[in-house]
Amino acid sequence: MNGLKQWLVQNRATSPKHWRFLGYSGVGVVVCLLWGCVTPYQQAQQLDTIGAYQKYLRENPNSPAREKAKRRLDRLFFDKAVEIDSVESYTRYLREFQRGRFRRRAARRREALRYRRARNRDTIKAYQDFLRRHAAGQYARDAKDRIEFLFFQKAQRYKSYRGMKAYLTHFPRGRYRAQATSQMRQFWWNKIKRKPTMKSLQRWLRQFPRGMYSAEARRQLDSLRYLSCEETGKWWLIQKWMKANPTSPFHARAKRNVRLFRRLYPRIERARRLMESGERRKGTRRYRRLYRRYRRNPAALKLLRRDLKRFRLESQVLR
Known about the structure:
Low-confidence stretches: 1-35
Radius of gyration: 46 Å
Strand content: under 5%
Mean pLDDT: 86
Number of helices: 19
């Protein structure tokens, strides 16, 4: 009998067809009494592998032990995922067992591994990819804070007004908004200071009517407005500016130039009309007389030089 038992083990004679054969031959009864029958579920238990339980469930759709087999298979899949401990292994488990006993633990561990991967890369894109998968996860707040920090760092490296404005647009209530506002003001003012214009100063004052550099911006805007009036040579515009800015440091200069342009502007207008009507010789003589008389006055000389350049008379008048 021991020899028969050894033969059965060696030849894996444990399937139903073997027992049917043994039963027909009369030997099966003796074996079942002495050794005990091995059911398909017991065979899967003896092997205790994922493949064995999957085969059992596939071949025995109506077995009463199916639920036990499923629970054990669930455990084996999860243990294998823990042993590998990777995003892919936990994803495979969650795909196979959407309602498994360990789905929450697997999901938490998968999220932790994905966040660790994002931290190792430490880029805005890596954290954004993480948040697309776990927008409400346990590490979502940390990922958002890290994105904000990296964005602000990048804006600082550019040292530009646009970089700080982009940060404030994306993070209007961010942790670095006070610092970003201050730096944005500083970068913008440095850019304006290199080449101030009336338009840029007006935009600055609309954005920052009070605070640092606003007083200086107003002074520069007043001076540019005066210089624009002075460049026209129209004394009535200068007079109008004087009424609007009685306390300006340019007030004394404006008063002197009003007296100068009262005399000079009508004479320049007559010279212009001569040049525009085609009487170039007469116009040239007039410009030459004006140049000799007012060449020592910077404001008048600037006005005359612009007209000479316009009519291409530099070589004839300035020789």
